[in-house]
What we know:
The structure holds two protein chains of two kinds. Chain A is mostly helical. Chain A has a domain at 267-479. Chain A contains 19 helices and two strands. In chain A, helix 4 (124-133) packs antiparallel against helix 6, helix 14 (315-346) runs antiparallel to helix 18 and helix 14 crosses helix 19. The mean pLDDT of chain B is 89. By secondary structure, chain B is mainly α. Chain B has two domains: 1-258, no CATH class; 260-463, no CATH class. Chain B: Its main location: membrane.
Amino acid sequence: MNVSLILIILLIGAFATYFAGDKLASKVALFFSLAALGCSIVLLNHFYANENISLIKAWITKPNISFALNADGLGMAMVLLTAALTPIIIFSSFGNDYKNAKGFYALILFMAFAMTGTFLAADGLLYYIFWELALIPIYFIALIWGNGDAEERRKAVVKFFIYTLAGSLFMLVAFIYLYQKAGTFLIEDLYKLNLSASEQLWIFLAFFLAYAIKIPIIPFHTWQANVYQKAPTVGTMLLSGIMLKMGLYSVIRWQLPIAPLAAKEYMDIFIALGVAGVIYGSIVALRQKDLKKLLAYSSLAHVGLIAAGTYTLTIDGLRGAVLQMIAHGFVVVGLFFAAEVIFRRFETREIGELGGIRTQSPKFTSMFLILVLASVALPGTFNFVGEFTVLYSLSQINIWFAVLGGTTIILGAYYMLKMFQNVMLGETNSKTFADVSVNEGISFVAIIAVLIFFGFYPKPITDLITPSLETILNVINKN
Amino acid sequence: MNTLIAITGLGVFCLLFEILNLRKAIVPITIIGLLGVLAINYYEFGSTASYHDNMITVSKFSTAFSSLFIVLTIFLVALSHNFYENHPTKISDFVAIKVFLLAGAVAMVTFGNLAMFFLGIEILSIALYILAASDRLNLKSNEAGMKYFLMGSFASGIILFGICLIYGAMGTFDVAEIHESSLSAELPIWFPIGMILMIIGMLFKVAAVPFHFWAPDVYEGSPALTTALMSTLAKVVAIATLYKLIAALNFIPSLDNQDLLGTFENIVVIISIASMTVGNIMALRQVNVKRMLAFSGISHAGFMLMTLLTVSTSAGVLLYYTTAYALAGIAAFSVVLYVCKNQDNEDITNFHGLGKTNPLLAAILTGSLLSMAGIPIFSGFFAKLFLFNQTIQAGYIALVIVAVINSIISVGYYFKLILAMYSKEPNQERTGKPFLIYAVAVISITLNIILGLFPSLVLDLLN
C-alpha cells in the first residue's frame, strides 16, 4: 500500500463522476473524495507505523525521469489538508444547482488529484506536471461556472492563466538547468548539488517567479482579487484553500533547499515582500465593498505572513508557516462558504446591501462569528497557533518584521469585525434570511471543529511535520 | 524501398478505381492499403540498405519518419470522405494525389542521391499545388494555388541551383560520396554556398521566417483539408528532410573544418527566434482559424529548427516533436473541418458555443490546442521539454528563454479559441455526426496523450 492509491482513487473518481451523469455527479464526487480522505488516514497510520508508503518507478529513460512519490510528514500534512477540504468543498456546493454538473464535479476531483500529486511528487518533472495539471481544471471551473459579466470574467481568468503559466515555465527552465547538472530530477539528488552562488540566485529567482505568482506575493498579486470574485465559490475555495498552499509548500520543499545560499543572502528582501503583502492586503481589504473581494485581500495578507515565515529559514518560521497554511486553508474555505450562504439567500455580495441577519438567524451568526474570530487569530483557534509561531520567528530575525507583520492581527481584527458588523448586525433586513440548512450546518461544524480542536491541541500536526521540516532545514544549513 | 514501391502502386491503384467505378469504396480500401504499407515499413525498420546505385538508402531515420508520414496520410485520407462529399466524382483523384504526395514525402527522407531528393520534393510540391487549387470555382483557392506555385517553383529553383553548386564542388550527386569528401582540406567555397541555397529552399517549404510570406495566404485560401495536409504532413516532411540533408551531407563538421560553424549557428538561432516570434505575434491578431494555425505553424517551425543546433544527437527529439505537433494538428483540423463545413469562412465566430453544442469535439480541440501550447500531460509538453533539454545541454540557454517567452505568448491565441468555444453562446445548429471525422479526432488525440504518458515509445526509436 502506498500513496499512489490516493491519486488513483481521485483520478478514477473524476472519470466516474463524469460518467455518472448530471444528477448523480455531486454524490459520486462526494463519495470518492471521502474515499480519498479515508485512504489518506489509513496511509497516515501506515506512516506512523514506519512503513514505507513511498513509491519510485522509472518512467522515461532519456532524459531520466522517474515516477517518484515521497510521503514525509510535511507531504502527508498537505495531502490530509487537501483530502479533508475536498469533501467539505464538494458538500458545501450541494445547495447550488450547476449546469453540466458532471463536468463541474469531475473537474473538482481532477484538480484534487493534481494538487495531491504536487504535494507528493519527489521528482522535479513529475512535480512540474502535476503543478501545471492543477491549473487547467480551475481555469475551466472559473470560466464556465463563474459569476458576473462574461467578458470581465474572461479577462480575469485568462490573465490568471497566462500569469501562472508564465511563472511556471521559468521554473521549468530552472529544472532543466538543474537536470543538466545532476543528471536526474530526483529531489534528493537535487538537494545534493553544489551550485555556485550566482547559479543559485538565478534558480531561486526562477522558482520565485512561479511561486510568487501562485501564492501570490506582492507585486505579483494583481490577478487574485478579480479571479476570486469571478470564480464560483467552489473555485474560490479550491484556489484559496488548497491551490495557493501549493506555492507555499513548494517554497519549503523545492526553492529553499535547492538554492539555500540565495535564500540566506537575500532573506531580508523576501521577508520584506511578504510583510509588505500583509500591510497592503489589510489596507486594501479595509476599503472593499464586495464581500468576496474583501476576503480575497484578507487572504493576500495572511499568505504574505506565511511566506515571510518560510523565508526566515528557522524551524519556528517553517513550522508556524505550515500550521498557518493548514489553519488558513480551513478558515478561508469557511469564510467563503459563509459568503456563499449569504449569496444564496440575498443574491448579492455587496456589503452595503447586507445587514440585520443576526436577528433572523442566530445560528448562522454565531458560526460566522467563530470563523471571523479564527481568521483574526483569536487565542484558542488554530490560526492563533500558526500566526503566533510565525510572528515569533520573525521577531528573531528582526523585531520590526514582527511588529509590521503583527499588524495583520490588528488591521485584520478591524476590517473583519467591521465587515461582520455591516453584514450581520444592524437593522433587520427587509428580505428574509432562512436559517442554515442541515447540509450547510454540517460543513460549518466540520470546519469549526477542526479549527478549535487544533487550536487547543496542535501537537498531532506539530509532531507530524517537525521531523521533515528539520530534515529540510539540515539541507538548507549544510553549506 | 518496398515502402516506396507499395505506395506508388497504391496510388496507381487509386486511379484505376475511377475506371472500375468503385468510388464509394475508395476511402476504406486506401486506408487498408496504407495500413498494409505501414506494416511493410515496420518490417523495414532497423535494417539499413541501399538500392539502385545508392539512389535510395533505407535507415532507421527514414523508416521512422516514413511511418509518421503514412499514419498522417491515413488520417488525411479518412477525413477526405466527408470533405469531398459534394464532389463525389473527383474523390478518387484527390485520394490518389494524396497517396502520390506520400510517395514524394517518403522519397524525401529515403534519398541517397541528391537527384532522388529533388525528385521527391517535386512530387510532393506538385501534388500540393494541385490540392491547393483544387476548389476550382473558388477564387481564393485559385489564388492560393497560383501563389504557392509561383513561390514554390522559385524555391525549387534555388534548391536546384544549390545542388548544381554542390555537384560543381564534389563532382557527384551521391550523398555518401559527398559525406566522405566533405572534410577534405581544399574544399571549394561553393560547397557551403550550395548547401546554404538548399537550406534556403527547404526553409521556404518549412515556412520559416523570413521565407514565410506565402503561408498565411495559401493556408487561408486552400480548401480546409489541404490546409490540414500542408500544416501537418508537408511541414513535418520539410523539416525532416532539412534535418536529413544537413546530417547526411556532413554539413556541420565540414563547416567546422572551415571555421564557418559559428556563423551557421548564429543564422539558425536568428531564424529560429524570428520564426517563433513573428509567427506568434501575427497569430495573436488573427480571426480566421486557418490563418491562425498557419502562423502557429510558423512558430512551431521555429521550435523545430532548434534541433539543427544539435544535429548529431537530436533526431529522436525531432521525431517526437514532429509527431506530437502533427497529431495535435490533425485533431485540431478534424474539428475545424467539422465546424466549418458548409461555411464561407473559418472565422472564430463559427466556434462559438461549441462546448455546449458538441462537448466531445470541443474537448478534443481544447486538448490539441493545449498540446500545441505545451501543457502537460499532452505530448506537446514533452516535445518542448526534450527540445529545451537538448538545447540547454548544447549551451543555448538564451534561445531557450526566448522560446519559453514565446510559449507564453502562444497561450494567448490558443486560448482565444478555447474561450470562444466555452464562454460564448452558440450561434448555429449542427447536425450529423460524421463517423470518420470523429474517429480521426478521437484516435489522434488519444495517440497524442499516449505519447505524453509514454514518451519513450517514440523518443527512443532513433537512439
